[in-house]
Amino acid sequence: MDPVSVDQVTTFRRFNRYFTRRIGALDDHYLGQDRPLGEARLLFEIGDGASLRELRTRLGLDAGYLSRMAKALEAQGVVRLSAHPDDNRLRMVEPTPAGQVELKEQNRRANALASGLLEGLTADQRAELTGAMATAQRLLRLAAITVTLVDGAAPDARACLDAYAADIDARFPEGFDKSDLVGPEEVSGEAGAFFVAYEEGRPVGCGALRRLEPGVGELRHVWVHQDARRLGLARRLLAALEAEATARGLTLLRLDTHATLTEAQAMYRACGYTEIPAYVDHVYADHWFEKRL
């Protein structure tokens, strides 16, 4: 992967400084209300109610810092803390009537701020800006996802394969038999490799590599959770698998795919894979591809 340039870093930081100032993130009275952005955002994320564990994961906050903010909101009378009815170890937080009123006003003011920023632009410029923001969010999500090599028997690896199997079972007209999934021994150690993609600690994708013969590897089960699709994650997984294959001395990669997976076929072709005659008799294969590394 190409190194990040100084100009790119400078542009990124310049935008951050401008945007945080423009939306009032530096003000102790965010949106003109009597609290800073951190507390206002927490109140927004609490919504109708949530667990502190869920909020910690969603916001990426230190447990102690989150607890202090929640207690501060409780002291101000806008939220209440309680134990989960089915698990005393799980702390829940929900808005009080006063908190619901404040949250409604917060949303009104935030909408007005966004509308005010967009009013100075033409319709085409608004479309350009909001499209650029959507692209920025997509790329930032992708940048934050990590692709990690794990043991083929790891719980996250098997959970991803279970999700993959359920996904394609619903898509294949003939269904899918889970016995076709790779075994842990096929994608661990010298035999192969298994990658899991994580977004904020949650597995959202996977891909497997196994050795077919000297110098030749096979890709299996490249999958992305529906919540993380259209980010470019499948290509990230593919790049990780190819790099691992190269590191293992493999010079040729092969794969097969089902006729219904047209998006997968398009991706493989775009990434340099060429369609070839069948190299293996596989019940779920309609197309076969290979790429020389």
UniProtKB/TrEMBL annotation:
Q: Which UniProt keywords apply?
A: Acyltransferase, Transferase
Gene3D superfamilies given for it?
Answer: 3.40.630.30, Winged helix-like DNA-binding domain superfamily/Winged helix DNA-binding domain
Domain of life, source organism: Bacteria
- Domain N-acetyltransferase intervals: 145-293
InterPro entries named among the record's database cross-references: Acyl_CoA_acyltransferase, Bact_Acetyltransf, GNAT_dom, HTH_MarR-typ, WH-like_DNA-bd_sf, WH_DNA-bd_sf
Q: Name one Pfam family in it.
A: MarR_2
Q: Which stretches make up the HTH marR-type domain? A: 1-141
This chain belongs to the protein called MarR family winged helix-turn-helix transcriptional regulator
The organism named in the record is: Streptomyces justiciae
